[in-house]
Specification:
alpha+beta; 38% helix; seven-stranded mixed sheet; Alpha-Beta Plaits
Length: 640
Amino acid sequence: MKIFVPGRMCLFGEHSDWAGGYRRINAEIEKGYTLLTGTDQGIYAEVEPHPTALVLTSTTPDGEKHGPYEIPMEPKALLEEAQQGDFWSYIAGVAYQILTHYHVRGLVIDNYKTDLPIKKGLSSSAAICVLTARAFNRIYDLKMTIRGEMELAYQGEITTPSRCGRMDQGCAFGNRPILMTYDGDHLDVTELQVPEDMYLVIVDLQAQKDTMEILARLNRCYPFAGNEIEQGVQQLLGPINKRIVHQAVETLQAGDAVRLGALMVEAQEFFDRYATPACPEELTAPVLHRVLNYKALKPHIQGGKGVGSQGDGTAQFIARSEADQQAVIEIIERDLEMPCLTLTLRAGQKVRKAVIPAAGFGARLFPATKATKKELFPIIDRDGIAKPAILLIIEEALKAGVDEVIIIVQEHDLEAFQSFFNVQITIENYNKLPRHFQEYAQRILEIGRQVSFAIQEAQEGFGHAVYCAREAVGNEPFLLMLGDHLYRSKDEKSCAQQLIEAYNKHGISVLGLRRTSEDQIANFGTATGVWIEGNRLLNVTEFAEKPTIDYARNNLRLPGLAEDEYLTVFGQYIIKPQIFDYLEEHIANNVRERGEFQLTSALDRLRQEDGFLGFIMDGQRYDIGLPEYYLATLQTFHQE
């Protein structure tokens, strides 16, 4: 298994993570706030289980290989190695913490590539700690969330002589920007999305700074300020930082690079005014300010500031465009002979396509399905119009902002669907229709221009059906809706729109969930996890396909639900395109469940490797896949 973890880049809010921690002692101190993101560079590793030990190899940024180095997977040996304070210590420290909390065996970790600069304020030590926690999590399916991996990585790093801050492990969220809030020992993380790409440059100033001295001198200003300088530092890392970081978050989410650059300049000015007097030897930073004020850069940048603990370590700029990003790098490397890295904040991909599997035979509705597909069965809508079920599903997808709907069909059923969506009724029949039906007939043809088809040649399971849409979907997230389910929202936003908004906010695959009584869960896919937004959104830690009651009671209970209540699949998903790689692997290796290629196991792998959210839908699901369900839907759907 291959794992990549980026470095961590603090855009705004440096030092406020540990400063906010002093609220444990002095509640008058403001909370800490940092805006950070993962870097484009990072640490790459291939990992596999080992029965008794940690077996480690590493390749440095200059290509030098170290190891293999073997540490017994025993608490005493791991703790001794962690306290040595070298590169292997970080891995050993995390392994020690993992072993303290879980029953696991060892790992082989081959860190085969590192393109992240070391000791440059980009949290390379935190990256290897997160990578180690993630490796144990995925290899042994420990069902940790990203926050759980962060916590174990932090505990592992402070098991070593390192005294990192709490923000360093933010690299666990990948290259998504996040807002981290520090209130004593409490940590909150809010994931952010940018609407447009933003182009930054990271500059290695090739100078010297003493990070430990900077931290020691600034920490003297806490928990209680004893003079004007200490008051200034608390003002900087408190109210001033809070205002600037929250303005930066709003600016980032608005995609306003000009304003973000201005905030960088403002943040640096405040840092120079209030922090430098507390440690002038390190924070006067002549090299940093020479680069920030270099005239040749001005036409290409919106602004810039120091990075990490500040001082003459690393600088960051936000460029005006992608071309300006390259121009900044060329100027700095040519004129100042300082190496640079790119950092691009990517806009989240819009959900433009929906996939609806409709290739099943519908054996439970035979012989009606011999006459027509169950997806074409009539349903009376609220407006009193009798519509085929598939049309109701497509209308919901389009209303939610989807541009194209891909229907998975058998080849011999293609004509029936194409006839409905692409062929106008005869002029004789058209003229018999009242005007509002004539208008609706035109609307169906308009919808048909947004519908395409993919063929499933053999019915090999739900996962196989989804895989058949790979070419049509491409490398994009997509909305998956079931062809024999209808959905009715309880508010103005449709169910699909609720789910798409959850995806847009967090940038992680998400599935709709509904509360279901214990006696029904054997009929549905079921999920459990950890709540992250009240009792509405959770990090999924396990998918179970139609579990038994005993299994659910032992493994799927969730705080906040009634004792006999669980969360089952609603029938709508937003899925990242990596799912196709996992499905292809299953098909190539003939990995079947109950004789078919299922989707659930591929979803669970996506959960392990990229994260998966569950969203409690504010709506109702209607099943038409069984006669009794279809009858109930006919009786109630138009009334809801």
